[in-house]
Protein 1
Amino acid sequence: MITLELLDQKVGIDAGELVSYQVDGHEYIHQKGSPGWRNSDTEMFPIIGPTSKAEFQVQTPKDIAIQDQHGLLREMDYELVSQTGTEVVFKKKYEARTQVKNSKYPEKSNKEYLFWTYDFLFQKQFLLTESGLEITFIVSGERDSPFMLGYHPAFKLYSADPVIVAGKKNIGLDEVLAVGSRAMEVPNCEDILLKDGERQLQIKTKDFGNFMLWTEVRNMVCIEPITFYPYTVEQRNLHEGFRYLDNKAQTFKVALMP
């Protein structure tokens, strides 16, 4: 476990996963073991969304890749790059067509191994500042590499009627629950405010462009910045949501601001 501390803020990171963000003793992050989800955060890369109805195949410019729901990055382990008292950097490096063991096999998938058709380097950085916690993702690889990126944090809820404010729209928890496993789309949005009783948390992003909201319980909600909402297309057409790398790495940011 890695701990970052600044003023009244304390962050816990376990193998690259954000497992705690406390401000003045108040915990904002969903805790493992609580009802709702077995994780506290993860990433969706290089695809977002389910692939079972497409026989776990995703078309890329080079060839067909085998991907389970939300990609293969989450099946890989982070490597620690650097660490200070307020900042820590992790990375995952992948070589094209390397087979990665699928944790969903055989209970939820018939694909024992997954692979992607491009090399990539994925970095995740945590920086604790006076205004909050900044999480930065840096994606690099060969020019024209296709990808989608989603960040999937889960936030602990305390009140019976939390409200998610997206622009001029107020979204209640019942609305998110009603959408179910597909997750609610919040398009063309880079900034969301979670109001939970007397507390609130601003989730401010850069270069994702959209959010989706998901929960199946009342004690947590996932507020997920995404580059593409996958349910706008059929699963066999997920490639329509790709972005492509150019000559430089692409950087995406999420700020959690109490």
Note: The mean pLDDT is 97.
Protein 2
Amino acid sequence: MRVSTLSLCLGVLILAACSKAPPPQVEKAPPFVKTVAVLDGGRAELGLSGTVRARVESPLAFRVGGRIERRAVDAGEHVAAGQTLFELDTRDLDQGVRAAEADLAAADAALASAAAELGRARQLEQRNYTSAQALERFELVQREMKTRREAAAARLAQARNALAYARLQAPAEGVLIDVVGEPGQVVAAGQQVALLAQAGERELEVYFAAGMTPPPQGEALGADGTVLKLVLRETAGAVERQGRTLRTRYTVQGAHNELVLGSVLRARFHGRTADKDEFAVPLAALNERGDGPRVWRVRDGAVEPVPVSVMYTDGELVHVRGALSEGDTVVALGTHLLTPGMKVRELAR
């Protein structure tokens, strides 16, 4: 009896629970996201640093080998054209000149003897005391002695030139950027002992990221705040292997010896510096989930991922390439929480 009553009560409770309606579900509103407009990466002002260099930088070296006898300059000195910078030990070179002079004297004596023999042979040939073939042999000997004399004279000129090359002189006016040769050091012909920055135009060496087009003009800010005009003179033919950057040289208009060589100046460039498919977005808008970098574009209240290729960063902006258009809206913060097709609400910018 008690079991039947308990079963009846449980059945009533189950029927009551089943008949109770579930609570209504409250639909969540789409989350707010901060968005920014995509910028044309080629029209933004670009700021880079550059190094002041001379228009002509000449590596200096001896044209003959030997031991450095004297060093007359130090790094940083201003030198005049023709000023002596280094001197080699000339003892071996002096002996070379003397040997060449002796060879020339011997060649002169041999030539004089051959000329005398030829003269006597001609007299004998006129009197029919010798044959024409013998006369030709004497003429041949004279030509040979003349050739040997010319070779000896050339060797003497080379020896004298080598002796003159033992004195290294500045090819032009300028400043010695680096001096590495030391007295007592034995150097080979062509081994650099100094680097001369010739006086005249100064240039700014600037490195651009690979894929960028260096603008033809720009501006440099001097140490005193002056604005110096830059004109593109040279662009490297290949990208640097390590940094993947492109080296350029800009002529600094109106600046010659006033700029300190090796100093770093701030340069800025206006106009298009990249291709039309390059865009700039905030660094925080970039999202990486193992499938490559992407940005999240907002269209019709929903987000969609757009794969991009990163070119380079410029401060808080990153320059990318992808299927974007100028003016597109992308999510600037919290991209790690987004999913494709997710509904969002944009915050006022």
Note: The CA atoms of residues 192 and 247 lie 24 Å apart.
Protein 3
Amino acid sequence: MSTAPPTPRARLGELFAKVDGFFDRAARLHGPQITCQAGCDDCCRRRFTVTSLEASALAEAAASLPASRRAELAARALGGDPGVCPALDEGGQCAVYEARPLICRTHGLPLRFTPPKGTRALPVLDACPRNFTGQALDSLEPSTILDQTTLSTILGALDAAHADAEGRPRGERVAIADVLSAAATS
């Protein structure tokens, strides 16, 4: 008896778990050099778009919230500060934290970015400016540096499988604000 392969949504959950585990290991190794904690919300001071697969996870999480909470999120999405993620509440907490997209899960980690194709340059290392202060990022333990290109490739493949299964165009990006504003009606 054969079993069905895991769905893109299930695979996304696995990817989330792996990235969270990576973050936890990096935080243990680097200790106070990674200052990320509940209420630190500098990385939430923007409006983001996510893949359609991540949007479906966010919509599911938002739909599970009480109606009054969904209405709050929708109000922030439609009329809140345009420079702040509408999932962020007044206390600096994320209303959909368990379903937060990869961009949120990786913020704070040291990240390696590969230069665009056709350019000759070494990969760039970056991290939240609150983390690793006074330490050169190229001196960090390589096993705690996340490769953004690899992560984006995996997410892109999962999103393409999701789009194919849903009969949607590949590569769609969805504003988190749009997901949360639609949550009020679910």
Note: Residues 33 and 132 are 5 Å apart (CA to CA).
